[in-house]
Amino acid sequence: MMVDSSPMDSTCTHCGLPVAGKPPAEGEPQFCCSGCCVAHYLAVRGAEGSADRMAARLALSAFLAMGVMVFSLATYGSSIWEGGSQAELDSDAAAALDGVYRLGALALATPVVYLLGLPLLDAVLRMRRFFSADALILVGAFSAYVVSAWNTFFEGGHVYLETATMVLVLVGLGRWLDTRAKERARCELSLLLPEREPPARRVANGVESEVPADQLALGDLVRVLPGEWLPVDGVVVEGRSFVDSSALTGEAEPVSRGPGDAVLAGGTLVDGTLLVSTEATGGGRVRDEVERLLVEALGDRGRFVRLADRVAGALLPIVLLVALGTLWYHWRHSGAEAGLMHALAVLLISCPCALGIATPLAFWAALSECFHRGALVRGSEVLERLASAKKVFFDKTGTLTDGELELVGVEADDRGVALAAVAALERHSEHPVGHSLRRAWRDGGGSDECLPQVVDFRVLPGRGVEGVVGGATWRAVRAESSEAAETVVDLFRGDERRARFRLRGRPRPEAREVVTALAKRGLAPSILTGDHAGPARAVAQELGIEFEADLLPADKFARIEAAGVDTVFVGDGLNDAAALAAARVGVAVSGGSARSLDVASVNLLRPGLGSLPDLFELSRTAVRTAKQNLAWAFGYNAIGLCLAAIGRLSPIFAASAMVVSSVVVVLNSARIVRRREGEHASNGAERRPRVPTRSSEETVARRTEPA
Question: What range defines the domain where residue 65 resides?
């Protein structure tokens, strides 16, 4: 079942993740959260190396804040000096020294307020979050600074400059950690595409010319040299090369491609040169569709994410009331300044930073990990549904079998004429049986150019195809009854049967291992197929699972509807649309067409079913991690709020706890990726797919290097 995603009108200016809602005016930045807004203006808008600039600001501010702490410690120790080794200092000298310490602390604190406080204020004003946790923290920190400055010059009371500066440093550090985690999720998308595409080398009338990739048309011939990106989806016409498609499919090893083989945009040629006939360009390429779906997936807000958002929204008024109550209580019993400090501690400890990133980080990590393992998942809600699945239904032909059926027998008066007629009919079909019959025609020496023309072609759902050839109606349909282990197709001219074709399929090499792995995870796999009982029984017995055969598409739909809500259907994404829509989660196996990506909520980008068990395991890990993060965030906020309200936490400790809470959430979510890295290391495999990052100039330079 496809997941409806709200349209993403723009992306975050800082981290690049989708932002729902009305797009900003032209030239105006937009942010997905206040953390990104703070981080963006801390890093100086539009500057290259912004992460380094932000880190430099934080480091400088932290250094100055440590100096403030030293001066503040000296002022707190003046009472000790009066009765200790410094007793010889008269009161005037002690007061003068204390004034110097206060002025030194104020001199160091002022740049910190400028470097970190003003960007936070700018973020609050730009995002109009006047009653947010950021605004309240800002009020508390600025109040501490103003009170300290006033006491330094006029009243001579306590100063709280170390509180104001360390709070700003720790809040800035927390925002930086949060946004860095989100930026890592966005960086997973950059693995798919280079920063800019080099021009394509179009060949027309024997003349080569470089043109932008988006100006290529269907049927154009494109020459691709070693080390270059494939700019189009197409078919190899000439040449042979190993193609590294790891950025798109996650496959670690390059695959050999030659004449007649399909290639996808985004792959990189390792050694040879290819001449490719364009079949898709611009936004119609598989790569463009995958990128769009990845962006939608990152923008999807599942049940746990929505829950965290609602809780964070409800938390603010509660925290505000508790902070006001804390301010009033401690003001009455300990004075205004103590009340202000304890209220600031309440605001800091209750800042919902960890709560805001608790679930998105877990699901973003799982989504990117699924992609690295060859599965494109349509969002966090799909992962939640996968985690709760109990039953898995498989289509047979092209899903559990490899789709390459072998023609093992032909009953016909004229084998050549029969093969030509059925190949002409199946030329317009996308079913694996049709592909196999056309391949048998080509293997016998035939070519598609020699096939007769078919008019009035139509598909007979669940049965076969028919069309008019030479003025007569021909039909290629499954045999009405067959208990044999082959798939039987009858060819009719009118009502007269002219030929019978027997085809035999074989399960995919990994099918038994996948079925066993799913059963160990508590899932109940079975087969729903439109094929006859004989071929279905042969596959089911070999895999050790149950089956239902002779099902029309409507029958599959009904079976899945009757099975309940915890169902997954795995099909080829071409002729199983109804079943994929009926299932709680529809999984389309690798089909190599951009159109099939729109059919299901999960797409297996690698050939085969090998990534299916990992998909279920990752979905359960993501949900478990999200629950752990939420439990931690809830517990931390509840306990910390109580301690701060009764005056047991200082503002600096509360701000430190806020940072630690975010770090715990980030590290717990990162375990999903670390598990993959550990598995790859233990298997001697690479940490992640190899992704070329050469610019077009570097590619040209490589071409001119001597061999």
Answer: 10-190
